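Researcher: Next sequence.
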Amino acid sequence: MTQATKIAGVRHGSTKTIQETLAEVIPERQAIAKDLRSNHGSKVLGEVTVEQVFGGMRGIKAMLWEPSVLDAEEGIRFWGKTIPECQAVLPTAPDGVEMLPEAMFWYLLTSKVPTAAESVQFQNELASRAPLPKYVEDILDGLPKTLHPMTQFVIAVASLNHDSKFAKQYTEGMKKADYWKPTLEDSLDCVAKSFTIAARIYRNTYMNGAADMPALQADKDLSWNMANQMGFNDPGFVDVIRLYNALHTDHEGGNVSAHTAHLVGSALSDPFLSYSAALAGLAGPLHGLANQEVLRFILDMQKEYGTDLTNDQVKDALWANLKRGQVIPGYGHAVLRKPDPRFLALQQFALARPEVAKDPVFKLVNQLFEVAPGVLTEHGKTKNPFPNVDSVSGSLLYHYGLTAFPFYTVTFGTSRAMGALSQLVWDRALGLPLERPKSLSMEAIKKLLKV
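Model: Next structure:
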């Protein structure tokens, strides 16, 4: 999609701030919530089975999540829009062709597509919030290089609680109806500073420290500044970071990182504490580490079989893996039953760039997309034989020279903040209570079932 095509889909008129826009939108959503609770509060949304209790609560409809809904057949929709629809209307950077994460963040917060002017204004506001307090710089610079990057990320974000506007105003006393306002301010700070934290972690862990880290440029977007501070200046890398961050912002509320931010936030913990807890969940091998596992699988396959495989050789390699009792990483999803639209967006990014499309690692990713679904369908032990976003994202980061696997989840963390904290603002605006589901022992389950 060309830059001209993208701009044609962008509104140009309004220059409202994010605070003004939310102040207009929130009463509309509050009225919907009031109607649902008052007139339909006793209606049943579904049932809970014993298997769901043992199986990670999958499929239980028990959370309110405004910015996105995940459909098994068509994938994620952000406030009703698919990924291609978002790509068509969300503004881009002047020097890029991919939708800006800042524009997606505005959209997730407000349900409104930002005008070009609003997007620039919001980008500038976030850039002004991106510098780190000296105490956070000192904390990061004092951590051992051997400490996992995600642990460093958790520590740095949690330490920003020192300056939380929500925590300060809550302690001083404020109306519950106003909780969303300082929550928004903290959330904007958390998102903006997360990109700077990520760059500093990279320099401290994989380079010679942050002493010579380039200064933030106030007229550039968060992804550009992060790439520049990490020492990556290839425009292709900047654009893939923009797309990666926009695509990974939100994926409904039930995943570990999003749910954790919501759960901790329901105790009225401030956004920094809430999101630091979410990052700890994101660091788990079953959540944010998946794209690393895919890339290792790809590189191991190339090491064993070579870099120029036929489809038959790929098929044989996959069957050999399955017969050893191993999975094909990057395939299958807890909800989706079709190819992940985020995978398709990143695949299209690569195919549109000849230098990426001919990369042996990406070529094998593309071959797996052609071959693996058939193998997994024949194998018969997966409900979804199609690729998820993790099957391609690592290969693009790797192509552009980001080869430090443990850092990949940090790039996920800068993105997911935008979705999780957008919902946290809505949690406060809608007055959602402390989350406290009922738990059961196995004896209690047997008693209920009379078995």
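Model: The longest strand covers residues 68-71. The chain is about 60% helix and 0% strand.
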